[in-house]
Fold each of these.
Amino acid sequence: MSATADLPVDHPHHRHGWWWKTLLVGFVLWAVTIVVTVATSNTNLVPTIILLGSFLVPFTVVLFVIERVTGTVSTMQLVTAFFVGGILGVLGASLLESNLRQGALVYLGVGLAEEFVKGVLLLVVGWRVRPKTARQGALLGATVGAGFAAFESAGYAFNAAITTRGIDLVSLLQTEVIRAILSPVGHVLWTAILGAVLFGVAHGRPRFRWSWAIPVTYVVVSVLHGLYDSNSTISTLLAFVVTGTPLSAAQNGTVPASIAGIATTLYLVGLAVVSAIGVAVLIGVQVHYRRRARRQDPAPRPHVPGWHDAPPPHALG
């Protein structure tokens, strides 16, 4: 067998930029669907808006992965991981979260439940993936996280659209825009971190390996997930504290207009901070396992001709 048989193989459709082309065309189709829906008052188009708005950015993530993944991962495996992983993910998370009670730690419980489900799905999907590297794990984890985000966003969009007064298109669009913008630094990011560690630990081996780094990473991403989800509550409480406004000023759970702007600013800052921490963790994990791989498998440096390789000067006759 050739020595090159086990090397990563690029798929023929790599580096074609389909992900940003799909994002651009999909956004135009989504906008046109909204215009036609408003112009015709045709509520039959509402499901199209929900599907396009909820799946556009997550599926773009999958195309981004397809253009960069190598080895034994096929396009069909990635698409299957997106759809099957997404459906089983939201179903499993719903079952685990059904017994959670409201309280200070409810968001941490949600993070632990959802990251556990996605982690199990990542193990199943990545069982036969070769080679197992931190980069491969991050890409595959991003795919599973994107599927989860897509189906979860569709549910949130549906709930936002259905009201006692009928279909609230404005609320639907606001929900889809916010979740589309945040999805790459939400489920996609958390599962990419977990996948990078799962695959990074097993680097150079055909099967996954155990390491304490795996449960530690699981706890870290679950905590980040919980902080991300609870940021709205935390920012609101901070707004009350910073302005010295008593909690009794909130009527029927509504934030007073005098501190609404501060609460929104703190909310955006909180999301930015948690997202930045997540990105830094992902980069740190990738760098760590890349350096580790170089130490374990040092490749010979290619010979670069230099001045010492020049032939001796010819004698002048």
Amino acid sequence: MTHQELDDPHRLASAPVVVGVDNSEGSARAVHWAANYAAQRQRRLHIVHGLDLVAVSRGVGPYSVAAPSLAEAVKAAGAAAIARARLAAGDYEPELTISSAVSTDSPAQVLIDLSESAYAVVIGATGTAGTLSHLGSTLFSVTSHARGAVVVVRPDPDAANAVRGSGPVVVGVDGSRVSEAAIGAAFAEASERGVGLVAVHVFSDWDTGQFADEVIPLVTAELAGVEEAVLAERLSGWQEKYPDVEVTREVFASGPAERLGELSKTAQLVVVGNRGRGGFMGMLLGSTTHSLVQHAHCPVMVVHADDEETKR
């Protein structure tokens, strides 16, 4: 492990896999995935539930007399969700070290705070809406504002909503610093899983089909060659670090969300940065990533580069 990795709080031996839970089907899938993930990487699994008592009290409004009993009911439901998740995780991985906590904060705030020192944060998703029944906008808040890696456990709607555990790792490469962090995470995931890596470089966000009845071929052989060289250069250092990972390179002219979405139908994980090319600090979730966490057919890992790096 390098000195830089030792300084990374996400790489410390004490860094757990954190999973947020509620009473939804998506949450149950997330617990299963997170338990397997933590066990395979010999990490502690930390299960959390945010009560959001401030919102509960606000919802009661002038009927403050009902607030104490409602708060107690919310706390009881939260404790029950944690208990179910702990039991399920222990059944999936009997040797797994498990910890848990119930917080009065909102689910999003709990997960964002814990992401500072987590190996990864895991959230469940259901269907094509991309949100949990209870957590609501938590998915987008966490994928936008967390640190390190956030995994949105998406099921495959074409396979009875099962979470795929086979296929390659796919990574989106756009040349940005955030993309560089995603490449590193994708190589590590492919190596850990013993599978190949498909590196996808889409060098334009423009969909020519929006402007004509037929897609106009804009890409010359010379331009395609240049972009293929760009992708090869981006990958070269990582291929040296992970010689065990077999890499397939794919270069397309446009439609990054569509290309990655299609590949997600056969992948076991898609890895992307939280901001796209030309992304800036105020644009916390790129359009491609936003689309994938809602519509991908497999889990999506959203990687956040160090803020100081992205400012350079």
Amino acid sequence: MTKYTVKKYDQDDYKIWNEFITQTKNATFLFHRDFMEYHKDRFEDFSLLVFEDQKLISVLPANILGDFIYSHQGLTYGGLVYKEQTKLTQVIQIFQVVLLFLNENKFEKLHYKALPSIYHIKPAEEILYSLFLTDAKLVRRDSLSVIDLSQENVTSKIRKRGYQKAISNQLEIREETDFESFWNEVLIPNLDKKHQAKPVHSVEEINYLKSHFPKNIHQFNVYHYDKIVAGTTVFETETVAHCQYISKSENQENLGSLDYLYHYLIQERFTKKKFFDFGISNENQGKNLNEGLSYWKESFGASTIIHDYYEVETSNYNKLNGIFV
């Protein structure tokens, strides 16, 4: 353990952090500091950097809330990030020094949000084995609806009928840099009406993120005679096209707008990606499933990938002593 050192992130680490993220096998653009810090007023950052003989070998995006530490609550996914050449034994040792550091800083538990396997550039589940060794407790499990784009996928008849209806209705799909029309005319009214909620990102925030990550964030709108009737916001990583927001106008009859849009995204626009991720259909910390929403995603050919959340007692760093034989 003595060859590893841990430090809390500060602004002087901005460049080395971002350079490291581009070299890892289990990071996406969400871990870039420009993404992490768009909402820094909402989260008290406590991200960590791990060095081996003064060389950066791992980072952990994290924040604190009260007396608790989380792998970052402002990100869809998270966890310990490391390079392809980092071996399993090293990941275990890195995790041990992270837990020790947190324990010495009076954090009793680490709330750990894993990175779903579809976002791995190469297999990167060393940390899951490390969590097992430290008796981490599974506290939440979400189900992602995912299409493996390398396989042949069957679309249901009802989705095909919707697609044909959209063609007869002469719908038009546009990829745009403007988010205002979708946010203000479709997304915000729908979320307010259905859930009395607002989008996670304000339109100002999504514009900011788009300006910093133009190749990763995309807006697709569907128009019926130049009137917006539906849209989706897609976050694109090296392996995945992920639907961050999906919404259609409640005031319109069923024009087949989303069937038309998702046929295009899956069959044409993102066909070279490994996976198409519709995201979760869960509520109540994974305890409930929106049956209708899950069915809708599966009718495009999606099936389930799991996204896990853990709690691990930082004092369990000592459980990693003496495990190598």
